[in-house]
Amino acid sequence: MELLCPAGSMPALKAAIENGADAVYVGLRGETNARHFTGLNLDQSGLRDAVKYVHQHGRKIHVAINTFAHPQNYSHWQAAVDHAVQAGVDVLIIADIAVLGYAAEHYPGVELHLSVQASATNAAAIDFYQRTYGVSRVVLPRVLSLQQVAALAHSVNTELEVFAFGSLCIMAEGRCYLSSYMTGESPNNSGACSPAKFVRWEERNGILESRLNGFLIDSFSENENAGYPTLCKGRFEVEGERYHVLEEPTSLNTLSLLPDLLREGIKAVKIEGRQRSPAYVAQVTRVWRAAIDQLLAAPEAYRVSGEWERVLAELSEGSQTTLGAYHRSWR
Amino acid sequence: MKFSLGPIVYFWPKAQVFEFYQQAAESAVDVVYLGETVCAKRRELRLPDYLAVAHQLREAGKEVVLSTMTLLESPADLRELRRYCDNGEFLLEANDFGAVGLLQEQRLPFVAGAAINCYNHEALRRLIGMGMQRWLMPVELSRDWLVRTLEQPEIADVRSCFEVEVFGFGHLPLAWSARCFTARSENRAKDECDLCCIKYPSGREVHNQEGERLFVLNGIQTLSGDRYNLVNAVAGMKGLVDVLRLSPQPQDTFSWLNKFRSNQLSAQQIPLEQHDCNGYWHRLAGICQLNEDAFQ
Fold first, then answer.
1. The complex's ipTM?
2. pLDDT tens sequence across A302-320
3. Of A42, A84, B13, B128, which one's alpha carbon is 20 to 30 angstroms from that of A91?
């Protein structure tokens, strides 16, 4: 089972590799990846250095070219594919059928993984992408229960990769336009959700307010932890009742499900967080490396250590974690 | 330009649905989309019921398309999708690449719904090659984005091979989840929802703590809080858009259809309501309301 860790920068990449990641995934600077934040991601020469470093350590590097190409500068996406392949990366992670088609037709030997942004949640969709573009692995959206993931694993020929830890997206990835409704920018049209440029914090009478494009997302009293105003994680009101209508600020943590994931034949566990610091990546990678090693050594004896949970809880949003949609009761 | 009624996204009792389609048959609408696109548990109408309505509408001179589920998660969901695809008579709207895959394999033409991620001319060209006859543009895209896509040579060359449809009226489908937000709003688990969404024919409104309406809950689907309304953009769609879609609302759908139809020729500005929005078409945040005469 592959441990795939995020790297938004060279220091984060090294942190992942040094702490035992089997593979890392990166983005290229610019709009071709869905964590298009200023200062994040690698430029072309950075990518070449990254490939050299990763291969020297006997690991693999995946490049996410996973946004949807714009009509007016479509060539940027083709160029991203060209540069990644020329740099010698192991895998391209793609969502747009245009980019998939380009990669499959121009570089038939390159390993293609279907990005979570393609929102493929069923065997017919997976079969379509495998048949049409030669996709060999699919990253599953975080909307399937463990039973549904298991059912898929038994009915498709591609490898499956699941998000195992990190920020939780509660809507089917790749088909959520809530962010552009409120700000004009969404993961699909701009590679970002609830972008930082629209975020404002204001303090009013001891209450801290978080706003996105001027809209109040949540408010916090002094003893509450204030979370980033991701627009689906605020406290809103339905007929006067105030609560986390869509989702609480919580992170995904599937440490306890690892034996199930292994048994169902999940090929890779993906840690979310290309926007995270090298220190975060180091700590998370170390915990998951230990967990997977313990699991592989003796699956029946696997036990989640309190120490792992403690480390991960400290790094988690709102200090809470959840099994998300993998567990039926979350729904 | 033709006008269409999108699939009813809300959960209405059977009698209300039949009454709505009776009005549709008598209206001036050109195309009607039928089918459950949100939740497999909603069974007031099953495929045979939709087919019966489809026959009636066809006899009334309407073009009928069967719309399929957007979020397909289980083998049972796929079996139901296959039943729709095998109907043998009516065109299908694919709202997931699983449906695209099945229809392409069977060499059946289809409509690509708004949740099929088609953002550029290359993706569009490939979909046409797979049998797509009509493209409902993703709701978050603007007039500019549409123009730039259609003017690319690859598309200009095949423009007569497909139709362009734009979502022009109704609450915008913006997200789908594994979680049911309507059940959650009643403190119920999804597995014990008791189909409570039937109580909310236009969903449940979500406001922020300052009373601004942001979203509407509709089962596992989240809709825009405001109603998208491109009634004043209709004249500018001539020569660009082939079909304009109105999403059925519990009231006034047909009176709005008439306003849209009249506005094709006149450049009259119909006053938008407080909770109408049109931002996406004008390259703004979807929630914005721009008054067209600001452009003059």
1. 0.96
2. 999 999 999 998 888 666 6
3. B128
